[in-house]
Each structure stands twice: as C-alpha cells, then as structure tokens.
Amino acid sequence: MAENSSIPRSFEIISSLRFDPGLSDAACRYASSYPHPHKSPYYLLAYHQDRLIAAAAHFEWNGALNWLQQDLQSFEDILDASIPDRSKSWRLRIVVNINGKTRVEANPTASIDLMSLFIPSLHTKPSLPIWRVYVDIQTTTPSGFTTHKTTARDDYTSARLRAGINSPTDLAEILIVNPDGEVMEGSITTPYFLRDQMWITPPLSSGGNAGTTRRYALSQGFCLEHTISRDEIVDGELCWLSNSVRGFIRGQVIAK
C-alpha cells in the first residue's frame, strides 16, 4: 500500500447510514429507480456493503473482506439486531476492524422529509434549511484515508474546527481541498455545484471519498464528475450536499 508510512497504528473502516421506517414505502411510491433493495428501511444498503468491501480490499484486510462478502440479507440481519425501536429513525455507524469484528452503533436521528433521501430531480424543491458551506484555507493530501472512510479522521476534524464548526448538529460544512487546489469532498458530505446547466461533483482522482449518495447521484444521471477548483467557487452560490444520514441538503457558499 502506497501510504504505509502514514497509516495510524490502529484504525477501523466505517460506514454511516440512516434507518428510517418510512423509507421503503416512500421509495416504492416516489422513486422507482431507487437502488435495490427497494423494501429495506436502510438507506442505500447495498452501497454501504460495497463501500466497506472496497475499503477492506484496499487495506488488504482479508479477514474483514471474508466477513463482509456475505449475502445482503445476512448483512441486513446483523443491522436489524442493533435497532432499539423500529418505529423510530436511527443513525447507524458500522465499524469493522482488520479481522472482521464488527459493531453497529445506533443513535437517534431527527425526522426529515423523506423526499430528501432521493435525488433532487425527483422532488419538487422542498423547503429545506440551507447549510453554510466554507472552503478550507489549508490543504489535505489524498490517501487511502480520504478515498475510504475510516476512524482515522483527524484531517476532517481539523478542517471543521478551522471553519468554526464545533458540533455535528451545526448546519454547516467545509470543503476539503487537495494540494493542487481541487475540491476533494466535504468533511461529512459530497458536494455538487452547478456548471453550464449541469450539476458536477469532484472526481475520485481529486482524492475524495467514494460516498454512497455520490454513487447514487451519478447512477441516476443527476450529476457528472468534473474537477472543481477552489478558485472557481463563488461566494454566495448555491449547491447541493449529500450524505447517507441526511440525504440531499441545500448549501450556500460563504467566503471567509
């Protein structure tokens, strides 16, 4: 692995997603092209399994890889055991170590408009809160720890603190930038900017995370991959953000 010299002594691979009892009904009613499995209450379930498999393969964690390559129903059954109350919404954090030992952390999460979980072209411009979006003044070097989601997140934590984002509940995001001045991703979201009447998102070659909502948006033709320079982002411009707990979020750039 190319980043051996910078690998933390101990880390785990992770993926976070939303459990929502209303998701399967909403997907069947309003989003016929929503990815399989349609009837699952876990948002983009198969994509999360794929994401963890890709991370285990990258870090050459054969024990974790063997465990993760189970059938999707068995994977869902493991998540089911972590849900305290299936009538409520939960934020799940799947954490897998090098040997495949897995824990699933469930925390309450706020109710949202379920249409926010589907690509923006499918909803009728709902009244969503607008998040403040900052651009990091420092750069982050791409590595396996930016392409894949792990517990080694010091770079992201530092970027959020530089932007004055002190709580996970803040309606704010900071865009992570590589040494070439290209936007990689957000600290907890994938960003999308409107260019030439088309939404674009940073390519993985810029160093960012292969997120599940990013994969969903690309598969549905909502956006294209295109390099986004920090210098071309305009103060006040609107954008979309997405992640697998909150779905698609409106954002507005604020230049410091």
Automatic annotation (TrEMBL):
Pfam families listed in its UniProt record: Aminotran_4
Membrane-spanning segments: none
InterPro entries: Aminotrans_IV (IPR001544), Aminotransferase-like (IPR036038), BCAT-like_C (IPR043132), BCAT-like_N (IPR043131)
SUPFAM superfamilies assigned: D-aminoacid aminotransferase-like PLP-dependent enzymes
Sample GO molecular function, one term: catalytic activity
Protein name: Aminodeoxychorismate lyase
